[in-house]
Design brief:
The complex is a heterodimer of chains A (230) and B (407). By secondary structure, chain A is an alpha/beta fold. Chain A has helices at 49-56, 79-89, 105-115, 120-133, 149-161, 179-194, 206-209; strands spanning 5-16, 23-34, 38-42, 64-69, 72-73, 90-93, 167-171, 198-202, 214-219, 222-226. Chain B has twelve helices and ten strands. Chain B has a six-stranded mixed beta barrel with strand order 2-3-8-5-7-6. In chain B, strand 6 (174-177) and strand 7 (180-188) form a beta hairpin. The chains are: A alpha/beta (230), B alpha+beta (407). The interface between A and B is medium-sized, with 34 and 28 residues.
Chain lengths: 230, 407
């Protein structure tokens, strides 16, 4: 397996329910993502784009087919091994930020490194660095409830970067923020991509989608590569 | 994972603070259970110490009785036939190697005169040490027992003081026994029918006074002290054998050592304490159900949070540790509060007891040992861990995707 192919899916399917209620969210998806790719996944709601992202993010497991993350077949891994892949190789950004409400910005970022066993002092220092990177050095000790939507999402990005993952996944990262905050967020993600990280963003906003180097459209669980103009 | 401990503790503290009133109620449950246990143990230990202190100064002592001997609740009965220990018995006892001293308790009939009325009473003569030993469990309603150097003083039973004469006798008043003047030094509390020999009709006086007014010695029991405490039991057997041989009966007399009395009292106290602590432990079981309930609710409410943590790389173990730590923290804080409440509570309880049930001359202090404190906090910690195991496991088992989707 070529290590430049950071994500490879082979005929992955995801079905929910059984019998007459059976829903095929993904149908035999084949996808190769190279190191340093910047991909947007678009499609109408219910098309399966979030399902695909969740599978790539190891939050969920495929019903059938193979999924390789940096050459590792994750479709056969146990829950705890998946947790370690999520921790070390993937940074996930959610539409609703999903910060821990009781923790401050810096604690939220440091928590992710804690799970990886990083020493406390180093965690705090790196969390501070990352928050500075996303322009929040003045908001280190604020709780999520004291931050705007855009600021919360930037904390979430810092958290996603905490353990130096090679893959950054964003599920509608700009979905809950205003346009200018959305722009800032996308710029940060593009900066990260320029540093060599693979970035995949799910969106229904065509202007956001067009910023990516590759665009993938999902409809009824089937994936189609789209040409990016300009 | 050690370097996460501080953060985990931090997080646990924050979560406890976030749901402060619920947390306080939960740890109150633990606190009450631990308080009950700690205070009961402290009082039990206190009783043990009080009894031991009261009796240990007499551990070199053997009581010799005609008849059935001595139990916690009664002194030996005077044989109906009017048989007594003889001078020969006493001198035989004195000859047994290791015996230090023999004192005798005497009995005889006398006429008690008070304000020109006469009543026939049974007189009991014994020295002050024996008096203290034989009547440690009965309380005086007023006055005190006799001291070694007292002369012409008596201690009387409640019935004699209150019922025998038209006018009640009080401490300090003068009476006559067989024409000799005596001062009433103490009056026993009304005892009723408990015990073989009731103190209600008793007239206690010192041997010297007894011999002066009765003339003869009717020895119904003897108190023997030995040189070496370790020989108490063997000398007691020897005495029993000697006297029974003198009288040609197998069970003419019996002996009782203070240490055996002490042992039987301690055994009874131990049983009472065990039962009480067992009952108090039910409170702890209820409290642990409370913790489990609180933790389960907390897991439910934090479904999303758990999902987030798992999504950013927390393993099942990480999540479990977090919740177990939280449950443990709750119960340790509860345990510490309970221990403190137990220490102060036992003092209050004893104060309440001494002002009502117990008489004031009983010196009862709660004894809180380090072991019981460590045990109490340890037990609460274990309760915390055990009762948060299931909620923690439930949290750990959550699928990250469902937890994150949960609204």
């Amino acid at each position: 397996m070529d290590i430049t192919k950071v994500i490879v899916t082979k005929d992955i399917c995801k079905t929910y329910g059984s019998g007459p209620l059976r829903v095929e969210a993904l149908k035999k998806v084949n996808l190769v993502v190279n190191k340093g790719d910047y991909i947007s996944i678009i499609g109408p709601s219910g098309s399966g784009k979030s399902t695909l992202l969740n599978l790539i993010g190891c939050l969920d497991t495929p019903t059938s087919g193979k999924l390789y993350i940096e050459g590792i077949d994750v479709s056969t891994l146990k829950e705890n091994q998946l947790a370690k892949i999520r921790r070390d190789k993937i940074g996930f950004i959610f539409q609703k930020y999903n910060l821990i409400p009781t923790l401050t910005a810096i604690e939220n970022v440091a928590l992710a490194m804690g799970f990886a066993g990083v020493e406390r002092k180093k965690r705090i220092a790196r969390a501070e660095e990352l928050l500075e990177l996303v322009g929040l050095s003045h908001r280190l000790h604020h709780k999520p409830s004291e931050l705007s939507g855009g600021e919360q999402q930037r904390v979430a990005i810092a958290r996603a970067l905490a353990n130096n993952p090679s893959i950054i996944l964003g599920d509608e990262p700009t979905g809950n923020v205003d346009t200018s905050s959305g722009n800032i967020i996308m710029e940060i993600l593009e900066d990260i991509n320029k540093k060599g990280n693979t970035v995949i963003v799910v969106t229904h906003d065509p202007t956001i989608a067009k910023r990516a180097k590759r665009m993938i459209r999902i409809q009824d669980g089937v994936v189609r590569e789209q040409h990016v103009e300009g | 994972m050690n370097n996460m401990l501080r953060d985990n503790l931090d997080l646990a503290f924050k979560n406890i603070r976030e749901r402060l009133s619920r947390s306080i109620l939960t740890l109150l449950g633990i606190a009450i259970g631990i308080m009950a246990i700690v205070s009961l143990i402290a009082i039990g230990e206190g009783m043990n110490v009080a009894v031991t202190e009261e009796l240990s100064s007499l551990s070199d002592t053997i009581l010799v009785n005609v008849g059935d001997g001595f139990s916690i609740f009664s002194i030996g009965s005077v044989k109906e036939s009017g048989e007594y220990l003889t001078e020969r018995d006493i001198s035989d006892i004195e000859r047994i190697p290791g015996v230090k001293e023999v004192t005798t308790q005497l009995t005889g009939k006398g006429i008690l005169q008070y304000r020109n009325s006469n009543v026939s009473v049974t007189l009991t003569g014994m020295d002050s040490e024996t008096m203290k030993l034989q009547h440690f469990s009965e309380n005086l309603e007023s006055g005190s027992l006799l001291q070694e150097n007292d002369r012409n003083k008596i201690v009387i039973g409640a019935k004699i003081a209150h019922d025998y004469f038209d006018t009640e006798i009080t401490v300090g008043e003068r009476v006559k026994i067989n024409g000799n003047k005596f001062i009433v030094a103490g009056i026993f509390e009304k005892q009723g029918i408990s015990g073989v020999i009731s103190t209600d009709d008793i007239v206690l006086l010192l041997p010297r006074d007894f011999e002066e007014i009765i003339g003869e010695k009717n020895i119904y029991s003897a108190t023997v002290t030995v040189y070496d405490i370790n020989t108490v039991e063997s000398i007691a057997l020897e005495i029993e054998r000697t006297i029974n041989e003198n009288h040609g009966e197998d069970d003419f007399a019996s002996t009782t050592t203070v240490s055996s009395i002490l042992k039987s009292i301690q055994r009874v106290l131990d049983i009472i304490q065990t039962v009480l602590v067992a009952i108090a432990s039910i409170a702890l079981v209820v409290a642990s159900v409370g913790i489990m309930n609180t933790m389960l609710t907390s897991v439910m409410e934090r479904t999303r949070e758990i999902g987030i943590m798992k999504a950013i790389g927390a393993t099942n173990k990480d999540v479990m540790i977090l919740f177990i730590l939280e449950g443990m923290l709750l119960s340790i804080v509860g345990g510490v509060i309970g221990t403190l409440l137990g220490i102060f509570g036992s003092k209050g309880l004893i104060a309440a007891l001494t002002s009502t049930v117990l008489s004031h001359n009983v010196d009862l202090q709660p004894v809180v040992s380090l072991i019981s404190v460590v045990l109490a906090v340890g037990v609460s910690m274990i309760v915390g861990v055990l009762s948060s195991l299931y909620p923690a496991w439930k949290a750990a088992k959550m699928s990250p995707i469902e937890a994150v989707r949960y609204e």
